Fold this sequence. Notes:
Blueprint: H1 2-23, H2 27-34, H3 38-45, H4 53-63, H5 67-71
Amino acid sequence: MADDLQSIRQRLADNLRRLRTEQGWSQEQLAALAGLHHNHISAIERCKLSVGIDVLEKLALTFGVTAGELLD
């Protein structure tokens, strides 16, 4: 189970970083657009933070994708 959680966190981290860089956004810019703190974005991208559904939704809306797409 711990491996599954790490795998999901890693997929989210990879997708978040990819989408952010495709947009040309810094972590600070993404954080401002999503209404989050830049440390939060950094921790997600480093797989150091478990993300709740509300944060996942904020990130998905910011990128114009579904929450599922962030986890695929």
